[in-house]
Amino acid sequence: MAKQIKTSNGGVLRIIGGSWRGRKLNFPDVAGLRPTGDRVRETVFNWLQPFIGGSRCLDLFAGSGALGFEAASRGAAAVDMVEADSNAYRQLQSNAVLLQAEQCQLWHKQAQQFLLKASGPFDIVFIDPPYQSALWKEVADLLVSRDLLSEGARIYLEFPRRQLMPGLPVQWQLLKEKQAGDVKYCLFENQSGASE
Question: pLDDT per position in the chain (196 positions), as tens?
Fold first, then answer.
C-alpha cells in the first residue's frame, strides 16, 4: 500500500479504491491539514462500503480531499466538499478537474457557513476538522438542528486519541471506533427516533 509522500510544498496521496484507484493527488502544505492515512481510510471505507453506492456525502473539512474523492471514487452519487483555506480549496479544484469529478461540488467557505445554508439530507458525513479548531460539537449540533441528516446516516469522526470524545447529539449511536497512532476515529449512525 502506498505511503503518503511528503514534499516541501505539501504532499501526495493516493486514492485506494474504486474507479479512481491508484490515482495520485497533490495537496498543499496548510496548517492543520492532515490527510487521513491509507490504513485508516481503508478501514473507514470498509465500514461504509454497504452504504456508499448512490449516497449523498458531505466532507465538511475537505483539506486534501482524501475522504471526499475516495467516496466519489467508490460510487457516491454526490459529494459536497467544504474547505475554508484558499490554497487547499484551489488544489481541490485542480484535483476535481484532473479526476473529472462531476459528482463533486466544492465550496470555499467555513463549515458552519455551509451548514447554515445547506439543504439535506446527507447520507454520509465526514467530520475531521483541524484539531486546534475544536469544531466537532458545533458542526454536529448544526447538522442535527438544521435536519441535514437522513435517517440512518453514517457520520465519520476523527479526533486526537488523547482527547475525550466530543459532546455529540444523543441520536448519534456509536457503531465502531478504532485508533491509529495519535488518531481516534469513529463511525456513528443517526437515529432520529432516539430520545434524551
Answer: 333 333 335 789 999 999 999 999 988 877 767 777 788 999 999 999 999 999 999 999 999 999 999 999 999 999 999 999 999 999 999 999 999 999 999 999 999 999 999 998 999 999 988 767 778 999 999 999 999 999 999 999 998 888 888 889 999 999 999 999 888 999 999 997 644 4
Kind and range of the H or E run holding 91: helix 86-99
Burial call 29-44: b when 16+ CB within 10 Å, e when fewer: ebeebbbbbbebbebb
Residues 88/64, Cβ–Cβ less than 8 Å: yes
First to last CA, the chain: 43
Rg (CA), the chain: 15
Q: Report residue 51: phi and psi, to 5°.
A: -110, -10
- With CA atoms as reference, report the closest residue to 36 among 163, 122, 190, 156: 156
Using CA atoms, how far apart are residues 34 and 56, in angstroms rounded to an integer?
24
